[in-house]
Write a structure and sequence with these properties.
homodimer; Nitrilase/N-carbamoyl-D-aminoacid amidohydrolase; twelve-stranded mixed beta sheet; two-stranded antiparallel ribbon; 8 helices; C-N_Hydrolase (chains A, B)
Amino acid sequence: MTLRRRLRVGLVQLSVATNRRTDNLRRAEALVHEAVDDGCELVVLPEAFATALNLPKSHEVAEPVPGPVTEWLAERASRYGVWIAAGLLERNGEHVHSSAVLIADDGSLVDVYRRTVVYDLEAHFLTGEVGTRVVDTPLGRIGLVVGYDIQFPEVLRGLFADGVEIVVCPSILLRPFAEPVRQMLLARAAENCAYVLFAGATGENTLAGLTYMGRTAVIRSPMAIGAYSRDFRRQEPVLAEADREECVVSADLDLHELRRMQAAAPFPADFRRSPLGQALIAASARPGALPLGDPR
Amino acid sequence: MTLRRRLRVGLVQLSVATNRRTDNLRRAEALVHEAVDDGCELVVLPEAFATALNLPKSHEVAEPVPGPVTEWLAERASRYGVWIAAGLLERNGEHVHSSAVLIADDGSLVDVYRRTVVYDLEAHFLTGEVGTRVVDTPLGRIGLVVGYDIQFPEVLRGLFADGVEIVVCPSILLRPFAEPVRQMLLARAAENCAYVLFAGATGENTLAGLTYMGRTAVIRSPMAIGAYSRDFRRQEPVLAEADREECVVSADLDLHELRRMQAAAPFPADFRRSPLGQALIAASARPGALPLGDPR
């Protein structure tokens, strides 16, 4: 397939209310529509955007994949002709995962990823699963992670080894963590030489007395390559960012520039041949391939 | 031993000139003295502070450990009664490593660490070696890394698993990398729940037409714990920072606050029990213990 040079992305910062699935979907629909009107070709929704994590009831509100939420997403993707990534609680037999899905512009389910790291209190309700992978799409080379994973740099290194271009991270994280998470997002883009799309939930969880952090952001590596040289120079890493309002955060990715930088930078190769890199690559491989491009 | 609650550290940002060992040591001496006068109990010098990396001549200018440079450091440490960490080119049979040493206030050599990751062009001249470890000292739990390692988050995770309090990173990195390196330093402190002491070389390498980045900094985790609660709140992560001038960057570390945070934060335990964490811990273990507290 032809390599895309530019890509417009729209990240939906959604106020995710517990026990209000219908209302969450209604507001998500309006914001997806707004992103489409703005010309976005890849739209990202937060982690567990339809239900919130709702830990005590996670098994009850979780759905299989494919299932009602992925069908809802697939219907919008094919109607608008856009790719959609989103987080949902996935029921998988006895287990519930905080998963992310990637859905193509024809509505097909292209990838499912299950959050690797589970917070200690979550562990009674959610199951973590190791394994990332990149997916080559007409939009670029995409890798999914979810929320809390972003605090664990090792989770992204299998994607880095495989030359990921766009790391997509739906999240529903709490407000006190906003500042460290933002610092880690900047570092993830730098150390993995990739765009990072962080679509965060916002709003209040009034049942639990919690506030979500919002701070949805499109981040690029702070490095660029001089136009007629292989010299590195600095570029502004935050392309677009929200505070805590419900909104769409959109930006244009320059994939051509990213690929030039990935080709010129020594650190991807330095990582792949280092023993720690090799240990991580081996440990991160996802067991069992999912059916790529499977019809919904 | 009694746990220290506070510690004053002084990071020497030194202009490191190639082929001017005597002059480098003379200026280092003056700046170490300045840090001691300022009440610093741990003084950190840059990577290869006596010689620069001087790749084509690295084998020639490298020294064994212990050797002349560590003796020079030990003499200052015991004279002033301070701990010193510093980087040097270490000759080890056929190999040359960019190493860091930690020297106690009685002049004893407490730890030697060899930089893990070697840049592709360096690989003809320098050898990387996997393995980190924490050292419990009267000043706190210290872990050494060196320069380019800071771009590879996996290098620090063995230290994180062992509850490192102070990551010491002597460095001699180039100016175009200043901004991404600073972003990664902030993330390293956040994700590893530790102080990061980054002592950078500054100045010009006129032989090679290179400029060093400076930007020596004392970084802490952006998280703190409320005084009478286990609530996380935000704190300013950069305690002290230089631009490119030759100087001492000093700051007071609050180890008591750090330990409260490490005890309250869930992510160290979440890391240790995750399969990727376990893979990294196994791969990072340093083969063969060095003699702790060995007389110089």
